[in-house]
Amino acid sequence: MTLALPAPLDAPRRLWRGVAGWLHERMPKGLYARSLLIVILPIVLLQSAVAYFFMERHWQAVTSRLSAAVARDVAALVDLYDALPEPGRQGTLQRIAGMDLNVELHFLPVEPLPPPTGKPFFSLLDHTLSRELSRRLTHPFWIDTVGRSHFVEIRVALPDTNLRILASRTYAYASNSEIFFIWTVIASLVIIAIAASFLRNQIRPILRLARAAEEFGKGREVAFSPRGAREVRQAGAAFLEMKRRVERAMEQRKTMLSGVSHDLRTIITRFKLSLALIGDSPESAEMRKDVAEMEGMVEGYLAFARGDAGESTESVDVSALLEEICAESQRLGLEAKTRFSGRPQAAVRPAAFRRCLANLVGNAQRYAKRLELSGSNDGARLVIHIDDDGPGIPDDKREDAFRPFYRLDESRNQDESHSGLGLAIARDIAYAHGGNVKLSDSPLGGLRATVSLPV
Q1: DSSP characters for 133-169?
Q2: Is the pLDDT assigned to residue 321 strictly greater than 70?
Q3: Burial class (CB in 10 A: 0-12, 13-18, 19+), 437
Q4: CA–CA separation, 94 vs 296, rounded Å?
Q5: C-alpha–C-alpha distance, residues 154 and 396, integer Å
Q6: Distance between CA atoms of 370 and 342, rounded to whole angstroms?
Q7: pTM higher than 0.70, yes or no?
Q8: Where are the beta strands (DSSP E) in 158-237?
Q9: Which parts of the chain are coiled coil (predicted)?
């Protein structure tokens, strides 16, 4: 029994699932990229937090002190203007402003102050300087922190003149933020480069282990020794131990099958000798037929159990192999043709691969009149289609046709000896190469058998 969530809780849950699904689709799928993301995100968040919570407070405090100093200088100039006598007052103030305060002072005619200028996006200086001047001046004033980027302009309206003061922007504002950001970016890049190099070295042994497992699954030998972190070495050692057990089991099966094959063939040979001594008769002809069928079935069972696992991988011209199989079909009276596209060379077990194709083509040879073999190699996979115009296999029984010893009552059987192993052997060989065999409808109206192998 499931409890339905209340409506107020159901909407946030759907929203969270939608956001989670959106992030999952856009997150990197590789371990290397995900590990880099795990390293980079904390660095970015940490640097952002430092820049906002620490440096912003630092800049605000420094800017407040600098702006307060500039406001004091402006207030001192206004007080001196009011205190000094008229003769020589302007020259004295300009000399004090230039030599002692390091600012430019100009005297403008009495006129209304300009309208307020637009505020910049980062208006810390504008707000801070305005606040400090308001605390120290009783006269109207106007400031411009944007018009001239390297200077701050301050105008103070006095009864008989307007004071125009130009101060360097560095006197009122902590302007070394770019240095902090440059060092932050450089430090982040160095950390990311070190992390990327370290992660690449850690992931390389995992990739080597995956490649070794893939090659072993295809029946190919590859030199492999565990390396990397302790957990990766443990996984590599477990893979080698599994590989040794599989090879030992395969060797034991091969030895056992060799003995069984020898014993069975010995008995069948005795039957043949006995039949030869009996001579020709209707009874002996039927017995010879039974012995031949028995011999074919035994060979099929042994081939299925053995799987040609002891054969080494070689480079085979698949196009030439298809043409050879096509020629054999034509000699049997079938209308057969073949075509191939891409690189014809592929690394397979020659005898096993030929047996796989022969079992699939054998079905078409027995139940069809037309046969088409087509192959392609795109550099990643080798795909071979075997099409015929026979009765085919029903959709609901195509997977069952691959089961060992399974026989189709209608349509077709799997091999000549009626052992029910033809398609099973073909798929088993494809699996040993890391591929697969599938059945589907053929453009010719019959059955299509598709062999797909990695190259």
Answers
A1: HHHH--S-EEEESSSSTTEEEEEEE-SS-EEEEEEEH
A2: yes
A3: buried
A4: 118
A5: 90
A6: 24
A7: no
A8: 162-168
A9: none
Return the higher-pLDDT residue of 342 and 282: 342
DSSP-assigned letter for residue 29: -
Instruction: Kindly tell me the sign of the dihedral angle through the C-alpha atoms of 125, 131, 135, 136.
Output: positive
Q: Report the distance separating Cα 183 and Cα 99, nearest Å.
A: 35
Give me the count of residues in the chain: 455
Residue 153: strand pairing partners: 144, 166
Taking the CA atoms of residue 437, residue 442, residue 444 and residue 445 in that order, the dihedral angle to the nearest 10 degrees is 130
Q: Which residue has the higher pLDDT, 196 or 31?
A: 196
If one counts every other C-beta atom within 10 angstroms of the C-beta of residue 317, the result is 13
DSSP per residue over 335-347, as a string?
EEEEEEEE--EEE
* Gap between the Cα atoms of 50 and 63, Å rounded: 18
Q: Which of 373, 362, 352, 380 shows the shortest CA–CA distance to 417?
A: 362
| pLDDT of 121 strictly over 90 | no
How many whole angstroms separate alpha carbon 55 and alpha carbon 413?
81
The structure tokens listed for 228 are: 């990397």
Let me know: does 145 contact 125? Beta carbons within 8 Å: yes
Distances (CA, A) of 90 to 70, 209, 324: 20, 85, 110
- Most confidently modeled range among 56-60, 304-308, 429-433: 429-433
3-state secondary structure of 436: strand
Domains of the chain: 28-211 (no CATH), 230-304 (1.10.287.130), 311-454 (3.30.565.10)
Average pLDDT of every residue of the chain: 79
For residue 438, the SS3 value is strand
Determine the Cα–Cα distance for residues 336 and 387; give it in Å rounded to an integer.
10
What distances in angstroms separate CA 289 from CA 271, 274, 282, 332, 374, one per listed residue? 12, 14, 11, 22, 36
